[in-house]
Amino acid sequence: MSNRRLHYLIIPCSLAALLLFIGACQKRADYNNPLSNDTTKPGTITNVKVTNFNGGAYVTYDLPQSENILYVKANYTINDKTGATLETKSSYYSDTLTVNGFAEKKEYEVTLRVVNRANVESDPVTVKVYPDTPVYRVVAQTLAMTPDFAGVRVAGINRLQQNVGVVFLYNDPYFKKYTIRQQIFSNFREINFASRGFDTLPKPVAVYTTDQWGNHSDTIYKTVSPLYEITLDKSRFFEYHLGSDSPTDQYGWLTPYMWDGNTGSGWHTNQRVPYVLPPTTSFGLGVSAKLSRFKLWPRDGYLWGHGNPKTFTLWGSNAEQPGDFKPPMTAAEGTVIGDWVNIGNYRYPDPPSGNPPSAATDADRVWANQGTEFNVSFAAPRVRFMRVVVPENWGGDNTFAHIMELTFYGDPR
């Protein structure tokens, strides 16, 4: 290579390195040093207006006439008991500042200052806000604890759909104090979960709500006696093929894969003509049991789509060898056909976030992949055999169905 060509290569590389160095120095200077040398104290905000909401307030204002303003900041105490404080900022492009996280429905003082590009602050302006009842307190008023199978069910409504934590506690005799047994944090409208693993003896339990700012409601105490329940032994399940069951030879996703403990495999009916409608499969539990609930795992990758069940029906029979029948598309709970009784009509829930199925969130997907729980009516009889009928899938064509895993709970005594 000639010296001349080498010269042309060195110049651009050296220039690029120099520009990068200058840019890095400039960035460092901007970060550490004021953006302006004008240290004149800025004027204060004027024409302040307050709009309160649950747990907070919007503060609108007029900025002073100056091109040197950087932002407006607010300082305020959110909890008088703990002394917790917050600082919120809003850029000079905005005329509104949001203050949030207040622990109670009461009057609070908020101090606002204008800050210029030389980090010089204006004189303070103090305004009073009166936030409505904070969301965590609104939710706490709706909470209830009731007996459930092998546990306690906690239910409530988060009508404002803001982030709220619900903390369930148990007075554990081992620790001799109330300890956290389970907690959730979400913005889902319906709060409904069960803490399980209890025997049937009376249990002292409690629940409270909290928020992202560390506020928490008063604790609700109750003594609850859980109902008897065990997980049915899947090793005793067996396929019980009936003539009206849907074929599964197209993909090799067979009925027994619904209880193999693997949510990556499952039952999948054929998608070719002639269809056997509605998609149906049958199996035995290996025991006569009074069912309490079950969990269903849909096919990941097609959540709220494809052949995942949207509506489905469970038929049960306690006969030693129940006969076949052609399942109807719909039937009322309790309907008896031959040896079989409809023990429940179900609809798989929409995404808990409230988004449409086509726009499910990551939180929705996490929720679905943990398995979705459905209750069986107390009025349902004991059963030895099950039929799963899927008249409607999330894909909308309703000609096929797939389920990855089923787990049943109940009392086989």
From TrEMBL:
What's the superkingdom here?
Bacteria
Q: Cross-referenced InterPro entries, in alphabetical order?
A: DUF4959 (IPR032527), DUF5000 (IPR032164), DUF5126 (IPR033431), FN3_dom (IPR003961), Galactose-bd-like_sf (IPR008979)
Segment forming the signal sequence: 1-29
> Which keywords annotate this record?
Signal
Q: Which residues form the Fibronectin type-III domain?
A: 41-132
Q: What is this protein called?
A: DUF4959 domain-containing protein
